[in-house]
Design a protein that fits this description.
The structure is a single chain. By secondary structure, the chain is of the alpha+beta class. It has two domains: about 35 residues; about 120 residues, 2-Layer Sandwich (Tetrahydropterin Synthase, Chain A). It contains four helices and five strands; from the N terminus they run ααββββααβ. Strands 1, 2, 3, 4 and 5 form a five-stranded mixed β-sheet that branches. Helix 1 packs across helix 2. The protein is flat.
Length: about 170
């Protein structure tokens, strides 16, 4: 009985450590600490649509821009329940979050259509299984972010936001 309780406690501790590690990895150390402590001293300001910049406040953190892309619709491959190969439509609405103060950030808006094209090239290679579940979504966002950084030639791009992902 004692070994069973110890095993359950060990699993719980490992789970909590993994959760904290995932939180820090996805948000970054400063944002994770701010989430836990409730402090918003370094919280970034956000401007939407790339049409304007957030109002500067003394002592505020970095200013980020959220610039949406036009809707993307591509064909992806899928396998039916009987094992037959077929195609499906993937509809995706995304936005790119970037730090306007980072070196090279001024090139993001002018390279936006090239970034969208790189997204389409990648999405056409996917299968339905590639975008299933939270792991599939995380990989998709990471790959799109990698492509955005590659096309723009800067690490100013911080995150890809997905507002709609529909497979039909």
């Amino acid at each position: 009985m004692g070994k069973k309780v110890l095993s359950v406690a060990l699993i719980a501790v490992v789970g909590i450590v993994a959760l904290i590690g995932g939180l820090v990895a996805s948000m970054g150390y400063d944002d994770a600490v701010a989430l836990v402590s409730g402090s918003k001293a370094n919280a970034p300001e956000v401007a939407s649509g790339g049409t304007g910049k957030a109002a500067g406040q003394p002592g505020a953190g970095d200013t980020v821009i959220v610039t949406p892309f036009k809707e993307i619709i591509v064909n992806i491959s899928a396998t039916t329940a009987t094992g037959r190969q077929t195609t499906r439509f993937l509809k995706l609405n995304t936005a790119l979050v970037y730090d306007e103060t980072a070196p090279g950030a001024d090139h993001i808006e002018e390279r936006k259509e090239f970034v969208r094209d790189a997204f389409q090239d990648y999405l056409r290679q996917l299968s339905e299984r590639d975008v299933q579940g939270s792991a599939g979504l995380a990989i998709l966002k990471a790959e799109l972010l990698r492509r955005a950084r590659s096309v723009t030639g800067t690490d100013a791009a911080q995150e890809i936001l997905i507002s709609d992902l529909i497979i039909q």
